[in-house]
Amino acid sequence: MMKPPKRAAMAAQAIRELIAAEFELGDQLPSEAELARRLAVSRVTVREALGQLWLEGLISRRWGVGTFVRQRPGPAAGPFTSVFVDLHDIGSLPHRIAATGRTPSLPHARAEQVPATPEAAAALGVPEGERIWRVERCLAIDGTPAIVLHDHVPLKVNGVPFDPAPVTGLGGDFPTLVHATGTRIVRDEARLEAALAGEGVAKLLGVDAGTPVLTTRQTSHADTGTVVLSTRCYYRQEVFSILLVRTVPY
Predict the structure, then answer these.
(1) Which CATH code for domain 4-69?
(2) How confident is the model at residue 60 (pLDDT cuts 50, 70, 90)?
(3) Where in the chain is CATH 1.10.10.10?
(4) pLDDT by residue (tens digit) across 130-186?
(5) CA-CA distance, 56 to 52, in Å (whole number)?
(6) 23-40, pLDDT tens digit by residue?
(7) Which whole-number Å values give the CA distances from 215 to 11, 16, 58, 193, in the listed order?
(8) What span, in angstroms and rounded, lies between the C-alpha atoms of 227 and 141?
(9) CATH topology for 83-243?
(10) Which residues belong to CATH 3.40.1410.10 in the chain?
(11) Helix (DSSP H) and strand (DSSP E) numbers for the chain
């Protein structure tokens, strides 16, 4: 009998061939159960195979929707210019960047308790001035500063004290931490905007103050009906690009 890792590797290759033969960019793949039936393997094996294909950048996964075909970036080659990721993907941002063959790092990360600003209070639904967590991170790609993230989260989520310390390292992500409180993030809403980098953001990104940057304002909604995370991202445009793919249901 073949060992599970070998079965998963063979299933991953079978799914690659299936995608090449039957699916286009943006198409939704069959469910895990259907893939398991077609490949004559267990759902566990299919899940492991899909995890490998996600790491390779061949597919993306969307909460409550399914698995979709995306362009496979292939191995990184030549000088670094820009990296593309799918905003619908549920993996952490460093994980998605690593899947493109690039190396993510966090040259700056800090978590502190601060009074909620009017913007953060409105997003989280808490009184202005209430103490909340503020996490500031600068994410670099192949050593080049690419994104500054300002995260705001209540001191307690679902009544449980929240500790954001793990996200100050590459291995931590907010959905996992929120899930540990007995709730989970079920929907993200993001708004794309153009802005000029302020002094603090500009310093972290390594650009001049006033440089145009792309920003997103994102709120993460939990299954309790509350907003548990508000994030503002600032993207250095010559380093990081956002690819939006829309699919038409049949």
Answers:
(1) 1.10.10.10
(2) confident
(3) 4-69
(4) 999 999 999 998 899 999 999 999 999 999 999 999 999 988 888 889 999 999 888
(5) 6
(6) 888 889 999 999 999 999
(7) 39, 34, 26, 5
(8) 29
(9) Chorismate lyase (3.40.1410)
(10) 83-243
(11) 7, 12
